[in-house]
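Thread: Modeling a multi-component assembly for a lab meeting

Hi all, long-time lurker, first post. My supervisor asked me to bring a structural picture of a complex we are working on to next week's group meeting, and I have zero experience with this. I have the sequence lines for every component (838 residues in total). Could someone generate the structure of the whole assembly? Inputs are pasted exactly as I received them:
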Amino acid sequence: MSPHSLPPAPAAYRTLDTDGIRAFLAGVPTLATRLGGPAAHWRIREVSDGNLNNVFLIDGPQGGVCFKQSLPHVRVDPAWKMPLDRTFYEAAYLREIRPCVGALTTDILHFDPDLFVLVVESLDRHVVLRRGLMAGGDWPDAARAVGAFVARGAFHTSLLAAPFEEITRRLDVFSGNRTLTRITVDLVLTDPYRDHPRNHWISPDLDGIAADIRTDPHVRRRVGAMQARFLTCRQALLHGDLHTGSVMVADDDTRVIDGEFACPGPIGFDCGLFIGNLLLHLFACGDSAGQDRAVRDIAQFWASFHDTFGELWRTATRHDGNGDAYAAALFRDDPSGLQQAQADFMRDVTADTIAFAAMEIIRRIVGYAHVPDFDTIPDRAARAGRQAAALALARDLLADPDIVTTIADLESLARGRAR
Amino acid sequence: MSPHSLPPAPAAYRTLDTDGIRAFLAGVPTLATRLGGPAAHWRIREVSDGNLNNVFLIDGPQGGVCFKQSLPHVRVDPAWKMPLDRTFYEAAYLREIRPCVGALTTDILHFDPDLFVLVVESLDRHVVLRRGLMAGGDWPDAARAVGAFVARGAFHTSLLAAPFEEITRRLDVFSGNRTLTRITVDLVLTDPYRDHPRNHWISPDLDGIAADIRTDPHVRRRVGAMQARFLTCRQALLHGDLHTGSVMVADDDTRVIDGEFACPGPIGFDCGLFIGNLLLHLFACGDSAGQDRAVRDIAQFWASFHDTFGELWRTATRHDGNGDAYAAALFRDDPSGLQQAQADFMRDVTADTIAFAAMEIIRRIVGYAHVPDFDTIPDRAARAGRQAAALALARDLLADPDIVTTIADLESLARGRAR
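Re: Modeling a multi-component assembly
Sure thing. I ran the full set together rather than chain by chain. Output:
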């Protein structure tokens, strides 16, 4: 898949089985203490759910940890070889954003650079938001928490928050995350818009709309621009894979996990992936109450992101922040000027969000990695019909940027199309 | 000036005087051979003209070379300390772009990483374009050559030309050019829009317009956005200081020099600086024929840039190029779609160009480093009047992005205002 040759795995690397994991954890005093008791009593469960890594939860008498290890290939496709560095980038991402998002993500407990093992807090009382939504659950605060997560992470890694020397140095680390960025470029931004053997969909039901998306000149023009936007616009450090499967929820707690796709990019990419996955859920959702909740979640995510980001920016300006973009000196004495500048800025983020949401919908129905949300619809024709409606919305959003220019309009349009 | 501490100069570093330069060149066989004859016969002339480095031309019986050495301070202000790495970045820039721009820049002959000495082709039959224009000279092909230079350098370092892995790796080198990028951020993008002791202008004549620019809410809003654009939009490798003093001309030859400000950024920054300096010349120019030539040069620069860039892009698409933005697969069979995508792309580059041209005009009249073009006007009041007209144009361009949306409109408006 990658045009680049694979670096050799470090000599010390080996994929750990449960015995290996037990010995590894016992050898790290802080982790052994956290788990408590003799290592032989620790319960080790594999919970690998994503496509890439081995993930285990370990419970001891005192507490639990989550153990994540990179494999030298894609977990679900051993023929697809891949370098090991993705847990390095996930650890680096946690170190960057944990100070500004606090308990909206997991605490990093340990990283081993030889084994590419990352150990973080265990979230064993949480469920994956996507799975919870598919089961008809409701977490009224989750979307708001994710919005705050994106706003805080993005603001504090942007040129609004610090001088360019510092921001560039921090973002450049993640330029090295080439393997996973290549996956995003291929699977999200490129493959669905060309004939590619990795693409698949319910055929022949969706053949027409899939071909329509591939050949519509307006869609292609917009997709080309969004490819450039993702790769050239370094607004902030992105999570890079912020779908509903990257969010863990409990009744009173929301955590964003799985930051291994972290890369510099446009803030609307994170917003667009999250909203795109809520829209996928909306279209997969059979009942009106569930659809209402999906729309509410989109609205709350966006309001939370928008307001939190704006407030961080206003505070930095008031306190004479030293960011080099929209320098504080310009707006310190001009709150209404700052308000207008923020509106300009958010107009661009909104446009990016809508376009990336549309591209996420498309790639999750006709690309390589589909979402399971539609699996709740047992009838194949009905499933294809819901997917076709989602695809048609996405196509229309890309073909005509003026069809929807606010997230509120997006909610209304999607709600109408999903009925 | 820099918020960062200065790295110590390498132990081997010393500033070379003419004897030191002679010994240095004699010690590099390729350079000694190029000069020819005994070293004692070489003629060494200091030609330092820019603000930063020592520059000497050396002539021998066989040929000449240009010797450039970084100083541990700004050449024209020894109290302003500065790291030595700028010749490293200039050498790196030449290595990047020389393969795609050929003889539109100088060949790099030698780089010494201890002494921070860069030796390039001597251009002793050339004159600096700015000085030539000020003397009333005319180089009908120069602007076209500079347009081709920008187009080729930008295209081949952009995501239109190569996969992101390669482009990111190449651009990230220049993220390290923090000292000179800080100068751009402060002197070009920030200081003229705040009270700062480095700012100066013909006072009291220009006090009003300078204050107007600093306080106009529409100008501030646009300046804020352009600060963000310069620092977050990594479209290509920029020259970074492409004014008319960075271009050397002979009757049949044009070369762009002084790439030490090279950094990743929006392509319109290079275009805007060059056009901004031609506009400064236009406003400084007393005679109608000279003004006509300045307008012609702007038109030819832009046509050359626009057409060369578009043709490189079309060719890459036809040949199934592997750039990740506007991927070839989208447009290979759709030339009219590509044409529209190019129009979208160029609309953004044009908007950037106009805004950065305006900011260049402003900083060259009220900021730290002025242009000498206006020195040809002996009468102080007349000089201030021409400068005020240039500033008013720049202010209007920033305050209302719709006043001018094409370079042709910019030419007309400027020509009218400069009369």
